[in-house]
Write a structure and sequence with these properties.
Layout: H1 2-23, E1 26-32, H2 37-50, E2 54-58, H3 62-71, E3 77-80, H4 86-94, E4 99-114, E5 123-124, H5 125-132, E6 156-160, H6 165-175, E7 185-187, H7 190-198, E8 203-208, H8 209-214, E9 219-221, E10 224-225, H9 240-244, E11 252-260, H10 267-286, H11 294-313
Helix pairs in contact: 2-10, 3-4, 10-11
């Protein structure tokens, strides 16, 4: 009889602990892309005003760093400015980490120069390849090396580090997966890149379009000509319309958030992701990126409901 009573009490205790674990106030760790960071940060602020129960650790280690931590079970959410690779997804699988992939919105990678730069009217993709390719690092040193009519002054380059999804995407579409030159100022902090170009008359850099919009007064935005006869539109400047309709090529891309479905056993995290998706359209626009149509976010809300149902049945 005593054993039976103890068994019942133990079962009740374990069930209660499980309930508390799933519903308790929690620290949610988010890491990854600097491009997606402003979106998530704004949503965290809005969520925290309306609801209690969660605190957040929100940091930037680049898209690759975020995926590494997600797949190691260190964080609950990875911000990403590119899709997860097969190798990264396999790492998650090896560690029994499942995830929900969410397309947060769209972004154009902005190519910028100093506001005093009077000579650059546009860049072609071929010129960007010439400038940023590792094989040309020793030959391409001045603006004149790109076009003979440009000044014979050294180019000061600023860009994301190799851990960044922006770096990965730029390398993919501009360098055809080739290696980038290494003699540039690299940082995961886009504000440092903005300041670097803004403070250097001969500077050139690239980063997410939202960071340009915040600092347009100290930077000059450069159109890109992909020289594709099928497009035939000449140099295109990144705008909400040109990114959304795909004419800003090849530097338009999708932004992502990856959520550990293991961590979604925490019902407070479920509430946060639901809040995120309901308010994503307005907030993505507020921070300078381009939101998806509402039916896209509704699709992810339906996926979230399915995950919640599966978790409650297990």
């Amino acid at each position: 009889m005593i054993r039976a009573v103890l068994f019942v009490l133990l079962s009740f205790f374990l069930t209660s602990c499980d309930f508390l674990q799933r519903n308790k106030s929690s620290l949610i760790s988010i890491d990854g892309s600097s491009t997606v960071y402003p979106i998530s940060e704004k949503i965290i602020q809005e969520f925290s005003v309306e609801q209690d129960g969660l605190t957040f650790s929100h940091t930037i280690s680049g898209t690759s760093g975020g995926f590494n931590k997600l797949c190691a079970g260190i964080i609950e959410i990875a911000n990403a400015s590119r899709k997860i690779t097969k190798q990264e997804a396999r790492s998650c699988t090896d560690n029994s980490i499942e995830f929900m992939e969410i397309e947060v919105g769209k972004d154009g990678i902005a190519l910028v120069v100093n506001s005093e730069n009077y000579w650059v009217d546009f860049f072609t993709v071929q010129e960007l390849q010439k400038l940023w390719s590792l094989k040309n690092e020793k030959e391409i040193k001045t603006w004149k090396d790109i076009r003979s009519s440009w000044p014979d002054e050294p180019i000061q380059l600023f860009g994301p580090s190799s851990a960044s999804g922006t770096y990965d995407y730029f390398s993919e579409v501009i360098l055809d997966y080739g290696s980038s030159r290494g003699d540039y100022v690299a940082s995961e902090n886009d504000i440092l890149l903005v300041d670097g170009v803004a403070d250097n008359k001969y500077g050139l850099g690239f980063f997410g379009f939202a960071y340009y919009k915040e600092n347009y007064f100290s930077l000059k935005l450069i159109p890109i000509d992909d020289q594709n006869p099928e497009n035939g539109d000449g140099p295109i400047t990144p705008t909400e319309n040109s990114v959304k309709n795909g004419t800003y090529q090849p530097l338009s891309r999708t932004l992502y958030m990856y959520v550990s479905t293991n961590a979604l056993a925490n019902e407070k995290l479920q509430d946060f992701i639901e809040f995120y998706l309901i308010h994503a359209s307005n907030i993505v626009s507020d921070v300078g990126n381009i939101p998806h149509s509402e039916n896209i976010y509704q699709k992810y809300l339906s996926q979230l409901d399915s995950i919640k149902t599966n978790l409650s049945n297990n």
